[in-house]
Design a protein that fits this description.
648 residues, globular, alpha+beta, seven-stranded antiparallel β-sheet, 18% helix
Length: 648
């Protein structure tokens, strides 16, 4: 912080502490690099914040309250700075720099004492309240207003559908007004927006609105946001009962980046999350998993047809062993009914025989569960899965229930289980720092998993919007696209020909979408037929990334992501149905080092609809400063595996 700003802050603090009777008080805090600032204003019983970047107002004065119906008064203020480093169990980076300036304000709401924290980073801000002195019969309302500039455009996650946007902010306001006639999204549902939200305005940084550390905020459900007619702005609001000895809210977070792709690798939400809660995290092993569910009905060249059978699962395990794949996930219908402490198993599958076979082969299994067929009991469920030798659980039909999710994450950790949440789960951003066994979640349209295929344009939107909140289980990596589109799977897309992609795009997507568990969807034989392309997926060191960057990004059109591990780089790009050439600068490579590169590419004949399985693999060399011109087919992709040359 510049000296003049420090002096300004100190002066205001002195004025406040000397004269708390004044009707108005203002505080400003700058980011460590002085590029963004937050101004806190206390006027007429309201606390507001403003967000500025290089003199431009990004968020106009907006209310931030824990008791909106009570009068707020700032009683004291402190400021502090932090610049430290910490290492995650796994993630997009091997180390995080936690560098921020913070205001801590004592705020009194009609004799209820609270603390307001404003933590400002170079790439965003977090705001939260804390209360310790209250009566348990009181009720709090955590309210955050977002008074955006007129003319701004927003994009929004849309749960298991294609993300919304671009929506002109003024048009969105009109659409959700009580008398609006056009208030539905593309799937016919009432128009709602969900976090993360991206805010776009020409010549200013991109913003993303979301939350962090919901896990620590007991009594709070996931953040909801919408247009508030009375305040004339976007507002998130959540009521909660005051109980226990302390209330802490989630962080309300606004990310700030000059490029839209940088929002996906922005470290602020992870820095705001609570530190690691596990004494021993050595058992948490991120990786790739094979998955049976979308393979049912596939017929191999030798005539074998996959299904929910013991022999099918043994074939998966054989392939898992041969290719060094970390996990094999057994999905639904391995049981018929559940009661307290008991599973009634499928007639077609001998689960214990499969478990014994995996043990003999030295491979690890994951197992599905949901409550639709009865409840086993949460206290018994997780230890039972551990007793079976399972390394993790895919928990289906979780729903947007934060309390239930907290329980599942903690009990899963107690039983050393990785947790993959599906079917409208809570976007509990930052949870993988606190409980790294929370490796993934289907907070997106998981490819094929709803049996409604989607377009390359929708994938790019989800990669730039949904992925901001954290790990995604999108189920990419299908190679038998022709067979899938002909309807040769029991659980394939409902509409034949609707799976629009190419095999190189499918490979690239497994890198682009960040997760601690990457679930690939096809049959072992489909991968063996394209073993040279499968090599790219097979080599990915999932969750062990030293660094992650988004090199190219344009909403709905294309994205290029690069991730490194131990001096090697993996780069994946995808394009919309227009196709095109992306310039990929290799500025991230080390000076003076020659690198071997394997290129996994579309061909001149590749097309996402008419010829999705055409691809080529070639090799070459590269050095720092080179620019790769990646020619990408309509709806296609491009991959590179870059490593220091073995030729001395």
């Amino acid at each position: 912080m510049e000296l003049k700003n420090k002096f300004f802050l100190i002066l205001i603090v002195v004025m406040l502490l000397q004269g708390c009777n004044q009707k108005e008080s203002t505080f400003q805090i700058n980011s460590p690099n002085d590029k963004i600032a937050v101004v806190i204003h206390n006027l007429e019983g309201k606390i507001t914040y403003s967000l500025l970047s290089m003199g431009d107002t990004l968020v106009k004065p907006s209310e931030f309250s824990i008791f909106p119906d009570k009068s707020a008064k700032i009683m004291a203020v402190q400021n502090r700075s932090e610049n430290s480093k910490w290492k995650p169990t796994w993630g997009q980076f091997s180390e995080f720099n936690d560098n921020y300036n913070e205001l801590m304000l004592d705020v009194e709401y009609n004799q209820v004492k609270t603390k307001l924290y404003v933590r400002l980073y170079d790439q965003g801000v977090g705001l939260r309240y804390e209360i310790e002195d209250y009566k348990e019969e009181d009720q709090a309302t955590f309210l955050c207003q977002y008074q955006l500039n007129s003319g701004q455009v927003i994009y929004s996650a849309n749960r298991e559908h294609e993300p919304l946007g671009p929506l002109e902010l003024d048009e969105y306001k009109k659409a959700v007004m009580p008398n609006a006639k056009e208030a539905h999204n593309t799937v016919g549902e009432k128009l709602k927006i969900y976090i993360p939200i991206i805010v776009e305005q020409p010549n200013t940084p991109y913003l993303s609105l979301l939350e962090s550390d919901l896990f620590s905020a007991k009594g709070f459900e996931s953040m909801k946001i919408g247009y508030d007619e009375e305040r004339g702005s976007l507002v998130s609001s959540h009521k909660t009962e005051l109980e226990g000895g302390k209330l802490i809210t989630p962080w309300r977070v606004i990310l700030v980046n000059d490029k839209v792709g940088d929002l996906v690798v922005n470290p602020v939400t992870m820095n705001l999350a609570a530190p690691l809660a596990l004494e021993d995290d050595s058992w948490v092993k991120p990786g790739i998993t094979l998955w049976d569910w979308r393979v049912h009905g596939y017929t191999a060249d030798d005539g074998f047809q996959y299904g929910i059978t013991t022999e099918s699962y043994k074939r998966f395990i054989d392939f898992q062993k041969e290719m060094g794949i970390g996990y094999f996930l057994i999905d639904d219908f391995w049981y018929k009914h559940v009661s307290k402490g008991h599973f009634e198993l499928s007639d077609h599958l001998n689960l214990q025989e499969v478990i014994d076979y995996a043990n003999d082969m030295g491979t690890d299994l994951l197992l599905y569960y949901d409550n639709r067929h009865g409840s086993y009991g949460n206290d018994e469920l997780f230890p039972y899965y551990e007793s079976l030798g399972m390394k993790g659980m895919k928990y289906g039909f979780m729903g947007d229930n934060a309390k239930f999710t907290r329980m599942a994450v903690q009990k899963g950790a107690e039983s050393h289980l990785l947790m993959d949440f599906h079917d409208g789960p809570v976007p509990m951003t930052g949870i993988e720092r606190t409980y790294p066994n929370a490796v993934s979640k289907e907070y997106c349209h998981a490819q094929q998993d709803r049996r409604a295929a989607f377009t390359p344009e929708a994938f790019v939107k989800m990669a730039l919007i949904n992925a901001i909140q954290g790990p995604l289980d999108m189920n990419n990596g299908a190679f038998d696209l022709t067979g899938i589109n002909r309807g040769e799977r029991e659980k394939g897309p409902r509409e034949q020909g609707s799976y629009i992609s190419t095999v190189t795009s499918e490979a690239a997507r497994t890198l682009i979408i960040y997760a601690g568990l990457v679930c690939i969807t096809d049959a072992p034989e489909a991968y063996m037929e394209k073993a040279d392309l499968f090599e790219f997926i097979q080599k990915l060191p999932i969750g062990k990334w030293d660094e992650s960057r988004v090199l190219n990004a344009k909403m709905g059109e294309y994205i290029t992501t690069a991730r490194s591990h131990n001096g090697e780089w993996f780069v994946g790009s995808v394009h919309d149905q227009k196709g095109g050439v992306l310039n990929i600068p290799l500025d991230f490579l080390k000076d003076g080092v020659t690198y071997d590169v394997t290129y996994y590419e579309d061909t001149d004949e590749t097309h996402c609809v008419t010829n999705p399985e055409a691809y080529q693999v070639r090799t070459g060399t590269a050095k720092k400063g080179d620019i790769v011109k990646a020619k990408i087919a309509p709806g296609g992709g491009h991959c590179m595996w870059i490593r220091p040359s073995t030729n001395k």
